[in-house]
Amino acid sequence: MIDTTRILSGFLLLAAALLSVTSAATKPNILLVLVDDMGYSDLGCFGGEINTPNIDRLASEGVLFTQFSNNAKCETSRTALMTGRFHVEDGVFQGKGVITIPENLALAGYQNFALGKWHLFGSPMQRGFDRYFGFHEGATNFFNGEGTKGGFSYHLDEVALEPSDLPDDFYSTHSFTDYGIQFIEERDRAKPFFMYMAYNAPHYPLHAPREEVLKYQGKYMDGWQKVRDDRFARMKELGIIDADVEFSNSEKVIGGWDQLSEAKKIDMDLRMATYAAMIDVVDQQVGRLVETLKDQGIYEDTLIIFLSDNGACPFDRTRGPTKKNNYMPWDERSYWCYPAAWAKACNTPFQGYKQSQFEGGIATPMIVHWPNGITVPATFNRQRGHLVDIHATFRELAGIEYPKEYDPKTQQLSGPALGPARGISLVPSFTGKPRAEHKYFYQNFTNDKTALVRGDWKLVNFNKLYNLKEDRIESQELSTSLPDKLELMRSEFARLDSELNQGRAMKKLEVDKNK
Fold it and tell me: 145-153 contacts: CB < 8 A, separation 24 or more?
């Protein structure tokens, strides 16, 4: 007698397996690489002199987004990125009323891996990731993992590690990549994966292996103005900015270099050389990840996105013992930072830095690469976009909706109501099609560092007005000549601020803003 029950059971198992394989084949793997405090023009493909051939290659085969915005700060950017909502919305900073990217992608069968800096509500394993290696806080020592304010927050999956758990040759950028490669190699191959690679480079402290620093030492002895001028020229040649763009008089010169002593110039050169080395090492690790994808036979159908969480950092918080003892940046006892003048060069051609809402604070160099999904390689996309769009993009690629309710504790589509998703998918851009425009971009780091972009117009700090279509680098301030437009933008900002912010998130930002 034929056992129909066993046959039916076997058929169902086979169908499920085929469905899983088909699902994995039709949904791309996703690798999101987020770097920390990198300036707009640091990459070679965006005009920089730093050696970044692997990232530049991705750009030459993908799409460069020249007008993409972040939130000007580590935690605020990560909050908007991971939730697809504005960071100031009620409860978002506490992880309430949100579904994270991995939580949403898991509903479409994705496995989810996170590496590096978290600096968000909860923990990676509590908010949708299946594997994790990294640290929870805002900044750590690259060589021993110690937090900037002491303590130690490194974890492997859900296990809190001890400093002794790290290898003797530990360097965070290398180790994040090592674990990332391990996670890819050990993945369930019947499922697509999302990997969030959040390098802490080039955030301070400025730490890099000695041989990497020596590659750049001496290259910055001509000073920050020379770097800015050279990058400005290259950006015009590359088409990142228009050939006729000029700095305003107040932005033309970064002063002070010629007044430095020779010893101080050597000091400043060392700091920028270390910063450059940190980015160079990131590029090397991106190359390792790409090679792994190729070795696994999944490179062609893996979407890779590379971007920075904010502009370059202007805060020179170099510590006294480092100066007193002349600890080199490859010594774990050192704690170097660079000053605002170098940050300004790194943010060429913009004004402003990390935390500010000028373009130097919020413009991110973003690259999207996907051989099987991008039909317009080696092109620029000049539509304005925002971090909240990435959540929407991944949902579309995964074929999954944004739910009305979600409980992160039970991972069920019932329970707390979710706030509205704010993003617009970038997917049309991959084939050269225009995507829907945002009605506005609302920015509020703290109540005195704000911006509103509406159409061609941008309001900064409630009192400065720019036309971004005609003046991408904010060189011509128009509030005096266009008072009616200024008042209209102020009125619109006040309306949105009342609707979205209500001051609930700002106290926390005031506490955290100098981390």
Answer: 145/170, 145/172, 148/205, 148/515
The bridge status of strand 63-69 relative to strand 363-369 is antiparallel
Of 255, 244, 310, nearest in space to 35 by CA: 310
Q: What is the pLDDT of residues 330-383, one digit of tens each?
A: 999 999 999 999 999 999 999 999 999 999 999 999 999 999 999 999 999 999
The residues with which 133 forms a beta bridge, in sequence order, are 115, 156
Round to whole Å and give the CA distance between 11 and 4.
Answer: 10
CB 104 within 8 A of CB 394: yes
Mention every residue, 6+ apart, whose C-beta is less than 8 A from residue 215: 51, 273, 277, 280
pLDDT of residue 505: 43
Q: Where is 415: in which H helix or E strand?
A: strand 412-417
What stretch of H or E contains 176? Answer: helix 172-185
Check: CB of residue 359 under 8 Å from CB of residue 371.
Answer: no
Closest to 422 measured CA to CA, from 451, 397, 400, 393: 393
Please report, for the chain, the start and end positions of each structural domain, with discontinuous segments joined by +.
26-433
pLDDT digits (tens, 9 = 90+) for 498-511: 999 965 544 545 54
Q: Tokens for 113? A: 């891996």
Distances (CA, A) of 79 to 131, 159, 170, 451, 505: 20, 23, 28, 18, 12
For the chain, the distance separating the N- and C-terminal CA atoms, rounded to the nearest angstrom, is: 73
CA distances from 462 to 8, 73, 406, 479, 488 (A): 67, 19, 36, 10, 11
Tokens of 496: 């949105």
Q: Render pLDDT for 8-19 as a digit per residue (tens, 0 to 9).
A: 434 433 343 333
Amino acid at 414: S
pLDDT of residue 90: 86
User: Angle between the 53-61 and 262-295 helix axes, to the nearest 10 degrees?
Assistant: 50
| Bridge partners for 193 per DSSP | 111
- What whole-number distance in Å separates Cα of residue 339 and Cα of residue 458? 28
| CA 367 to chain CA centroid, nearest Å | 11
pLDDT tens-digit readout, 392-427? 999 999 999 999 999 999 999 999 999 999 999 999
421, 392 contact by CB (below 8 A):
yes
CA-wise closest residue to 385 among 358, 402, 401, 366:
366
Answer yes or no: is pLDDT of 20 > 50.
no
Domain 26-433, CATH class in plain words = alpha beta
Q: DSSP labels for 188-253?
A: -TTS-EEEEEE--TTSSS----HHHHHHHTTTTTT-HHHHHHHHHHHHHHHTSS-TT----GGGS-
For residue 90, count other CB atoms closer than 10 A to its CB. 15
> What stretches of 437-502 adopt beta strand conformation (E)?
441-446, 449-454, 457-460, 464-467
